[in-house]
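Usage example:
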Amino acid sequence: MLGKTLKALLVGTTIVAGASAANAETFRWAFQGDAQTLDPHGLFETLTLGFQGNIYEGLVKRNDKMEIVGALAESWENIEPTVWRFKLRPGVKFHNGNDLKADDVVFSVNRLNTEGSDMKVVAALIKEAKAVDDLTVDIITPTPNPILPNQFEIFYIMDKQWAEENKATEATNVKGGDEGNHANLNANGTGPFIVKSRQTGVKTVLTRNPDYWDKNMRSNVTEAIFTPIAQDATRVAALISGNVDLAYPMPVQDWKRLESAEGVKPLAGPEARTIFLGFDQLRDELTASNIKGKNPFKDVRVRKAFIHAINVDAIKQKVMRGASIPAGLMVAPQINGYSAAMNARPAYDIEAAKKLMQEAGYADGFEVTMDCPNDRYVNDEQICQASAAMLAKINVKVNLLAQTKSKYFGKVLAQNGYDTSFFLLGWTPSTFDSHNVISSLIACRGGEDKIGSFNLGGYCNPKINELTAKIQSETDQAKRQAMIDEVFKIHQDEVGHIPLHQQPLSWGVSDKVEVVQRPDNQFDLRYAVVKK
Amino acid sequence: MADVTAQNTQKSWLARAADSDLWYSFCRSPVTIVSAILTVLFFVSAIFANWIAPHNPFDLASISIMDASLPPAWMEGSDPRFWLGTDDQGRDIFSTIIFGARISLFVGFASVIFSMILGISLGLISGYVGGRLDAFIMRVADIQLSFPAILIALLIDGVARGVLPRAMHQDLVFYVLIFAIGISGWVQYARTVRGSTLVEKNKEYVQAARVIGIGPLIILWRHILPNVMGPVLVIATIHLAIAVITEATLSFLGVGVPPTTPSLGTLIRIGNDFLFSGEWWITIFPGIALVLLVLAINLLGDWLRDALNPKLR
Amino acid sequence: MLTFIAKRLVQSILVMLTVGLIAFSLFRYVGDPINNMVGQDTSLEERVELKEKLGLNDGFLLQFGRFAVNAAQGNFGFSYQHRRPVSDLIAERLPATLELSLVSAFLAMAIGIPMGVYTAIRRNSWLSHSFMTLSLVGISLPTFLIGILLILLFGVVLRWLPTFGRGDVVQLGWWSTGLLTASGLKSLIMPAITLALFQMTLIMRLVRSEMLEVMRTDFVKFARARGLAERYVNFVVALKNTMVPVITITGLQLGSIIAFAIITESVFQWPGMGLLFIQAVGNVDIPIMAAYLVLIAFFFVVINLIVDMLYVVVDPRLRVDSAGGH
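Running the assembly step on the lines above writes:
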């Protein structure tokens, strides 16, 4: 009996394998972690959203040149200062066969505001969504917003009917203690790939959507298998031994190895992510320091001493193996609002740093704990270790607390009351615009404008908040740039943070495939081609 | 009378330790001599690390990132200051091995002593008192023996992470490790000691001591304990090797000693990231050091066991 | 004999209750169940209400009883990281760990026993000495180091074997097996060797010392004195008497193989329970830790029970009044 079943199963699998072998193009890729949820509104995180982007789609998307182009919307226009009108693409179907309608967009907007949603940043951009007819939808913004479409790429549209049938009308928060709703483990998008099977933390198999609307999609992949591989060495080995076609991130020190290994190559490029250090400038006494009764980081001389003491070129050369771009600004060259003229860094100068420390009354230095993730950014822990060694030269004793990203973020973010005195963080503005950086990282936090929520150190200059609001609604590019420059100038003069560098994108790909590497480190299966 | 028996037992133990047979078998086995020398070298360099190591890898002010990832002295591009090369932070590998071995040995030793004290006490009590207490202790031992040390250590570490605040866990990490590794090893001691106690307690000299009114604690300490020290020593030696490996494994899994004060296991974990990039020395040298250290201790333990077991001669 | 089995059964239940108690304490007091369920904005009233609803205000015994009943049915609640029932996660990963462990145990015995026999019979041959030294090297090599070296050699330099995961698996009902596909079998080789090596050396040394003991006994000497062939004495008389304790202890070792799989699985990213567990330790995912603990204890108890019963079958004279039988 058992034998029979076994035989039947074996026959079954061989038939399937035989049938698909004719034109099957399987693409396997690996990342260091798994997508945390399939719910498109459950977590604001690059990998999770990027992975979902193969299954779900937004009104707009970015093409291989990072330009915003229509996805579910064919066209859009700013019909009034606060109203954007999107025309939906006709004939688009969800994976379950339902037609895409304006109602689905309205439903998805409302879903962004449900309790479990982690996409409230996007929700805040929208005051209301109205269906004009089946294929037209108006998005009303609280203030004029000329760059709204740029901010919509990661806002994915969900099928209203499917959500209602499966009781998934609310976003499911990844931090919950239960299973979440149906949308957490199941997906029904409009995208080019359909979830075939998923084992969280182990493997997710996607198959091509035969009814995908974009018949000109470059990819010829029929099946895509995603595997999270946590250990760097295992991931590199998996690529070199041919177990996966694409693996990222690759440790920068392994590029040489990838170049010399047969059949694979490193794929590197500048990432739009800026890595920086920050200090608690808000509390009157640091939570993790031996200095009591005062906060040394409130003294701009100490912050200046730090920036002089950090040798970014050494970090570039030794830790990043030449693959980073030292930064003086909090934004990367790819970001709208970047100014090459302002990107110069204060020189590495130990003597100047010591002098500043002396002037500030800390000639003998002090002790401070540094929070650092060890699996989030390229060589993050090594950067922190190197910084600690450099600061030791101006008598600052850094106690390094390096932990996995979930614990690190759990400690330093708003949810835990910004519990950090000195930290390393990285940021890519999802809109590719400086405004996102200013309003998230630089503006004073805790105000009525609800911005500055990732300003972990509480750096604050009210002038910047005023400018932020103006930058948001200014449509004249020259005036807007001038205001952005002004913000960055203030921030540099006051050493609100210490920008270190833009980290490199570091992927490893097999010669058997062609992929497009996006500067935000997302991988889009639409542009993945398996060579014949 | 009591003094005489005490002297006798003491003498018999001391005599056994310095037994000419033992010394003879030691001298006859070159492998044992080599491993003894190795072990002593490791211990001496661990104890005097501050004087022996050419650099202090924990002194951040003395290391420079510009020295990072230099190869060993006999390779191209090396720096004569670092004869085994440097790691990704510019720390001298030779020095980190010495300091790392110190941490590994410290954690190993402390946990062995911890298990030894716990195991011997429980074994003595179990064997001497007997009855329900004995049954209870041995049952606990049985249950615990079903769980491998590494699992128990992992669990305790996991619990400590859950209970202690993050920063505190970092400060207490050594104690957590020592406790976790130590608690998982007491059973062997307890069983051996209990067995010997059962045998010894009915011997005439112990009976006699009891009759003349010597308290049980003194009997345990002066009459029974010395007789079980031989087997305990063997267990302790082998246990030290296991403890060092367990610590390295935990550190390798990322739940042990942090990378700012690396043990040998942490060094291997760090170096593992650089294995494919051709910087093999960061992981291979600490790996060799770990294997040599454990092998030397194991060989010593092996020899000791055979030497103390007359049946095998 | 019945009373013996009954006694062992009661003991096993006691063991499970003890382990269950530890797991429950982990669950209830280490991971705060409320904090892991609610969002940051949940009000105090809602928390109190939730606490009442979950029965966290009930007496200790009642709560423990509920936990035990749930656990007995395989219900351990939800994993904090994966947001799925722990029982589902474990069921998904159990086959991977069991396949790896059984193959390793088989390897360890198939190689370890002959080596042990050989070193016992030819005590002083150079091969025996090198086996013994090798076995010490084997014990002194940490498992993770062996795994790394194997990956480097066979995965990266020679490119013969896959370096991670299970390869393609075939689903047989709820059981997923990698033993029926070529890539699955290839993926199994390195992890199985890594896991088996330590047990192999252990078994070899055990067989050797047991065999030496047996060969010193009178009836072996007597057999030899009767003029039976050396080969017969060695392989039939001595080996037969060695095998009972060896198989027992090897059976008991199966449990520790499953536990040691934690390390191997994390080096090879083998998607089994061990990998699940080590990730749970890193993230303080208490429900998974508690469930894993109970499950491993359950394996041990069952194996122990079977071994004890086999003993009774083999040797009815067996007395169990002394604690710590083997």
